[in-house]
Amino acid sequence: MCPMNWDYNEEGECGPKYWPNANGRNQSPINLDLCLMKYNTVEPLKFVNYDVKLTGEIFNNGHSGNIFLQVKPHFENDVPEIRDGGLDQSYRLVQYHFHWGLHDNEGSEHTLAGLHYPAELHIVHEGVTNPNKLAVIGVFFVLGVDDKPLLQECTVLNKLIEPGFLFKFIALHCLLMSSVRKESILHSKRRML
């Protein structure tokens, strides 16, 4: 069995055919079944400071480029966070990362009605009161003609060739741009190995 790691090698001991062996109730990946979804009557999720520019670092962990925020103490009140919407506390943005594949019909970690999307963005927030809790927002990407909303991030990601490579990133822009067509799913707070 795979020693606390995973990869996309179909023939490897850490590949997709062994992922179900984790046997967790909230195990990724999941299929979001439209027939089982119910209308959510809680108040809307509030996005605070998502228009603030921040700096960060992009790190190649061997699977994706993880973008970690660097927050200076005097900018602590400007950190993007989410609150309300049924959450038990406010959650501050700590990092975001992408999942993508070799082809346009694969790439997203999760599926919606059994369909994969070309890419998926995970926006990871840590609890302000209890940092052991996470709130992760998943955004499915579809192909479009305007590729500029994430141009700066994509340009930097092309430089992350070797796992373990770290790249300083300046002027991190707002993640939730109106020009990006998205479907957001708020996942349960959980730590994923």
Automatic annotation (TrEMBL):
Residues 4-193 form the Alpha-carbonic anhydrase domain. Its cofactor is Zn(2+). It comes from the Eukaryota. InterPro entries: CA_dom, CA_dom_sf, Carbonic_anhydrase_a-class, Carbonic_anhydrase_a-class_CS. It is an enzyme of class 4 (lyase). Belongs to the alpha-carbonic anhydrase family. Reversible hydration of carbon dioxide. This is Carbonic anhydrase. It comes from Elaeophora elaphi. The lineage of its organism: Eukaryota, Metazoa, Ecdysozoa, Nematoda, Chromadorea.
